[in-house]
Amino acid sequence: MRGRLVGWLMCSCLAVGAGCQSSRGTVPRALSNQPTLSGLSEGQTIEVRHGAVVSVSPDASAVGRDVLVRGGNAVDAAVASAFALAVTWPEAGNIGGGGFMVVYAGKGAVPVVVDYRETAPAAAKADTFAAGRPTQHRLVGVPGTVRGLALAHEKFGKLPWKELVMPAVRLAKEGFELNKDVAEAINEYVAKPGDEANEMRRVLGKSGGGKWASGDRLVQAELAETLGRIAEEGPKAFYEGAIADAIVESLDEGLITRADLAGYRAKVREPIHGTFRGFDVYGPPPPSSGGICVVEMLNVLEYLNLRENERLSAKTLHLMIETMRRVFVDRAKFLGDADFMKIPAELTSKEYAAQIASQINPLRATASEDLATDIRLVKEGTQTTHFSVIDADGMAVSNTYTLEQRFGGRVMVRGKGFLLNNEMGDFNLQPGITDRQGKIGTAANQVAPGKRMLSSMTPVIVTKDGRVVMICGSPGGRTIINTVLCVVINRLEYHMSPRESVDAPRINMTWFPDKVTAEADMLKDHSATLEQLRNMGHYVDPKPARQGDAQSIFVESDGRIIGVADKRRGGGAAGY
Ligand code: DON
Fold first, then answer.
1. Each residue's pLDDT tens digit, 274-326
2. Predicted local distance difference test score (pLDDT) of residue 219
3. Which of 293, 386, 480 to mutate to test the pocket of ligand 1 (most atoms within 8 A of CB)?
4. Could you read off the pLDDT of 445-490 as tens digits, one per residue?
5. Residues identified as active-site
6. Whose CA is nearest to atom 8 of ligand 1?
7. What is the layout of strands, in order, in the sheet containing 460-464?
8. Which residues are 5's β-sheet partners?
9. Where are the domains of the chain?
């Protein structure tokens, strides 16, 4: 029954008080009065009644699920899963990066966002990178993850901090079984040339050379030690003392100082709030562009009545592409860290969306050049990771965090077993210089000391009358916003099932480059549609590109929780 695992099946072994073997571990005896845990398999759907965690890593989802079963709430589970992902999904799960967590506390509370985006070190100025080609060591932003998770825990958590970090310590110390995706990713990235990756090669490379294979066990003793310190001493252990010293000392000609680390603070912010067809949509505010962009797009699409046409018709895809194109112009012009500049409030208003909608030609593509002639966008990496959590009281967490590129810049802190981000690359690094290869030099997102670089991460929570209906997000750089848009439209506009909403082929347009990328291989029955799009004036990339990895949770009106692990990169949904 691949793809559909239904919870609440009583396991006979519970009745005799023995541990109950799920496909991923053993339910402790103490839980023998609990409902059976659903098993795990790749790309699965689970249907449960109490709570669920869906992430790219089955082990990390199981860690969060176990926290829920022990009486932890959604934030407790999110903290535990985030630390676990730093062990089991090393290309993007992290303690050396940053991200955004949207928390809905349940019972009609206004959601909040924990912003733990990295900051520019004090020594970084607008022209610091103007000469171009900075080393990976200089691209490291001050990491936010540990303080972000601690802030979320301080504000909402129920279980002790140490209990939430320890599962990750155990996974690092005892090791975990590599699946094909993780094994291949490590093999590929340790093999790439470059001295900056020497420490990563020592730590993550297979001892004695050779390649990791699916089923091998990866033990990370130094990471276990680092996480153990964080478990015992809290976030200070990371931002001050030996770990902070090691970060600074690992960066040759790096910009980060001990003062930058000690001074880093995560922030609680109000989410961006929009409505779509009577649903409330909450996403992260600047320094992420995700919340504003997805709400702006939904507002425009609400005027365009997509449902008059089929979801994968050329007409619908055209209207979505033209909406994406225009919203990405606003992103480049106006968005950056709102603590450093003013962002026009009208971007998320219905009136402004009506104007945009009225400018879209329903039959012809607009050339991106015609919307603004002087700006091009920076190139971003393609690895980040998102997970979704809901608990039995309706508290929900939507969390996306990243090292920016896959394994960041492959810079590992010496002797401490964790990777650093290369997030400074998300700033507009060369002021005033724009070119057709992908640079952007506009002011909104230029470097300043302490400033947060603009992000596309878009963890969202959708509610209806105060009840969570959907939790979603994705990796994928700028494509994240469009991936989330596709899943939300599938569900809220086309009423697709949870599985179909995540599975359906996705499209992407980010203004520049002026081309549409699509999961065209999944659209094989729709070659006529692609041809129609081309006839409307769109350049549709002939190369199919897999887009995003939306590890999502949906809640049906009768309370059933549907966890949907996206099949694109494998993943695990765990619930009870
Ligand atoms: O914050 C951002 O938008 C980027 N640093 C995210 C990079 C990313 O998603 C790469 N991922 N798949």
1. 999 999 999 999 999 999 999 999 999 999 999 999 999 999 999 999 999 99
2. 98
3. 480
4. 999 999 999 999 999 999 999 999 999 999 999 999 999 999 999 9
5. 384
6. 477
7. 5-6, 45-48, 561-564, 552-555, 467-472, 460-464, 279-283, 272-276
8. 46
9. 64-268+405-427, 272-374+456-569
Distance 343 CA to ligand 1 centre (A): 21
Q: Among 338, 337, 332, 339, which Cα is nearest to 293's?
A: 332
User: Residue type for 202, please?
Assistant: R
Protein residue closest via CA to atom 5 of ligand 1: 404
* Total-model pTM: 0.92
Alpha carbon distance 231, 108 (integer Å): 32
CA distance 23 to 38: 8
Alpha helix positions (H), 94-241: 145-156, 161-174, 180-191, 198-204, 221-233, 236-239
Residues with CB under 6 A from ligand 1: 380-384, 402, 404, 423, 426, 455-457, 475-477, 480
What tens digit of pLDDT does each residue of 200-247 get? 999 999 988 899 999 999 999 999 999 999 999 999 999 999 999 999
Centroid of ligand 1 to alpha carbon of 510 (angstroms): 14
Encoded tokens for 246: 């090691």
Packing angle of the helix pair 350-359, 314-334 (nearest 10 deg): 120
The CATH number fitting domain 272-374+456-569, selected from 3.40.50.450, 3.40.50.1820, 3.30.930.10, 3.60.20.40: 3.60.20.40
Helix (H) / strand (E) element for 27: namely: strand 25-27
